[in-house]
Amino acid sequence: MIYLIPFGAPLLVLIAAAVGAGWGGRLPSSAGHIIEALLLSALTLAVAAVALLVAVGPGTSPLAGVDGFGLSIRLDVVSAVMLLLVTFVGWIVTRFSLTYLDGEARQGRFMAWLCLTLASVLVLVIAGNLVVLVASWSLTSFGLTRLLLFYHDRPAARRVARKKFVISRLSDGALVIAAVLLAVRFGTGDIAAIAAGARAGGGMTLAAALLAVAAMLNSAQFPVHGWLTEVMEAPTPVSSLLHAGVINAGGFLLIRFADVMVQSPGVLAALVMVGGFTALFGGLVMLTQSAVKTSLAWSTIAQMGFMTMQCGLALFPLALLHIVAHSLYKAHAFLSSGGAVERIAMFRRPGRVAVPSPAAVGRAFLIALAIYGVIGGAAAAILGQSAQALALGAILIFGIAYLLAQGLADAAPRALTRRLAALATGAAVGYFALHLSSEWLLGGTVPPPPVPGPLEWVLIVLAVISFGLVAVAQAMFPLWAYHPAAAGLRVHLSHGLYVNALADRLLGGWRLRSTLPQGLAA
Asked: Nearest 5°: phi and psi at 150?
C-alpha cells in the first residue's frame, strides 16, 4: 500500500481544480492561497515519493481491478523523476497564473482546467497499468484543448484547438490499439510485467510502431508540428505548461515502453529519421522568427525532435535527462518572455559585430572536434561508451563549435576565444558525466542501447554529417545572409516551408463544431 503515496499528488491537484471550478469567476485571494497550498503539498508528496523509492526500491501498488486490468501506481526512477518535475513546474505555473490572470472574469474556470490537466499528467507518469495510462493520456489532451479555448472568441484560438483536437484523437487511437495489442500478447495490463515480457524477447513490431506514432503525434513531430506554433493565442501560463510539460508526454511514453521499443529496430530507425529531420527543420526555422514566443515554439519543436532521435538511438537515460532540462528551461523562458526584449535592449552595447570568416569557422570546428575526439576517445576506451552515445556527443559539440567560431572571428577578443575553448572542453566532459550519471540512475529500469547494425550505422553517420553541415551553415550565415538566394530561403523558412498552411487548407473545409465536441466549441 505504500506505493499508493504518489497518487496523493494528483488527488491534491484535483482538489485544487475543484476549488477553482467552485468559484468559476474571479478568485478571491483566499481561494488562490488554497490552490497554491494544495499544489505545494503535491510537490511535497512528490519529494516523499522520491524518498520512498530510495528507501524501499521500485514497485507497483496492489491492483484495483480484475484479470490484470485496473488502477495501479508504478513507482520507479522514471515515474519519480517525472512526478517531481511535473509537480514543481505545475506549482510554478499555477503561482504565476494566479497573478497573471488576476481580475479575469473566468479566472476560476481557467485554474480548474489548468489543475485538471496537471492532475492528468501526474496520473500519466505514475500509471502502473495500461488502463490508467490510456485514460490519463486522453484526459490530458482534453484538458489542454479546453485551455487553448480559454479565449474562445478568437478565431486563431479556435483554429489551433481544432487542429490539436484532431491530432490528439489520432494519437489516442494509436495508443489504444497499441495497448490492446500489448494486453493480448502478454495477458496483462501491468506495465512492469509487459516490460519484463518484452525483455524476455516478446516484443511486438506493430505495437511498437503504434506507440511511436502516438508519441510523435503528441510531441509535434514533422509534419504535424504546426499547431504548436499557434498556441500563443492562449494565456502565457498555457504556453508554459504545454512546452514545459504536456509536450514531453510523447517522450515519456517511449521511455516507459523502452523494453518494447528496442525489440523493433525498424521502428527505432524511423524515430531517428523523423526526429532528426524535425530537429534540423525546427532549428533552422527558429532562427528566422522575429517574435520571441514563436521562436521559443519552434525551439520546442526542434528539442522534441532531438529527444525523439535520442529515443530512436535507444539512449533513453539521455532522453529523460533531456526532458528534465528542457522542461525547466522552457518554463522559465515562457514565463519570463514578456520582458525579454526590454532586457536585451538594456544590455546591448554598440560596437563592431564579430563575423567569423570561413577560415575561422573551419578552425573552430577542427578545434571542437579535436577536443571532443580526445575526451570521447578516452570515455570510449575507459568507460565503454556506446556508438550511439559517441555520435550524439559529436552532434552536441557542433553547437559549441558554432560559438567557438564567434570567438575566432577577427573582431573577437582573445579572452573570449579562450573562454569558449574551455567551454567546449567542459561541455564534452559534462556530456559524458551526465550520460554516465543518467545510465547509473536508470540502471535496470530501461534497457541499454543495442549494438548498431548496418542500418543503424548508416543513420548514425547520416545524422552526424547532417547536423555538422547545418552547424557550419549557421556559423557562416552572417557571410551570406544578404545574398538574394539566402534572403529568399529565409522567407520560405520563416513560414515553415508552408507545411502548416497545407494543414490549415486540409482542415479549413471543416466547421469548428463538426470537429470539436459541443462542449468544447461553445
From this structure: -60, -45
In what helix (H) or strand (E) does residue 457 lie, and over which residues does it extend?
Answer: helix 454-475
Q: Would you state the pLDDT for residue 375?
A: 82
Buried b (16+ CB within 10 A) or exposed e, 318-351: bbbbbbbebbeebbebbbebeeeeeeeeeeeeee
Report residue 290 as a C-alpha cell: 522575429
Per domain, the residue ranges of the chain are: 1-128, 154-336, 352-480
How far apart (Å, rounded) are the C-alpha atoms in residues 310 and 123?
Answer: 25
Helix (H) or strand (E) holding 64: strand 64-66
For residue 380, pLDDT beyond 80: no
**Which residues, listed in sequence order, are joined to residue 446 by a DSSP beta bridge?**
443
Cell 549557421 belongs to: 474
**Cα 499 vs. chain centroid, distance in angstroms?**
21
Residues of the chain with pLDDT > 90, as a percent, come to 39
Q: How far is CA 96 from CA 36, 92, 152, 237, 393, in A?
A: 10, 6, 22, 7, 36
C-alpha separations of 386 from 221, 347, 381 in Å: 26, 43, 10
> Which of the two residues, 95 and 160, has the higher pLDDT score?
95
- Run of H or E residues at 59: strand 59-60
Distant-in-sequence, close-in-space partners of 362: CB < 8 Å, separation ≥ 6: none
Alpha helix (H) residue ranges in 101-129 = 107-126
Burial of 515 (0-12, 13-18, 19+ CB in 10 A): middle
Distance in angstroms between the alpha carbons of the first and the last residue of the chain: 43
- The predicted pLDDT at position 489 comes to 80
Other beta carbons within 10 angstroms of residue 517's beta carbon come to 11
Is the distance from CB of 368 to CB of 424 less than 8 angstroms? yes
Higher pLDDT: 298 or 156? It is 298
Place of cell 490572470: 101
Of the listed ranges 39-48, 86-95, 294-303, the one predicted with least confidence: 294-303
Q: Quick one: residue 127, left, alpha or beta (phi over 0 = left, psi -120 to 50 = alpha)?
A: beta
Work out whether strand 74-75 and strand 59-60 pair parallel, antiparallel, or are unpaired.
Answer: antiparallel
Which tens digit of pLDDT belongs to each residue from 65-82? 888 889 999 999 999 999
Reported pTM: 0.89
Q: What DSSP assignment string belongs to 85-108?
A: HHHHHHHHHHHHHHHHTTT-TTHH
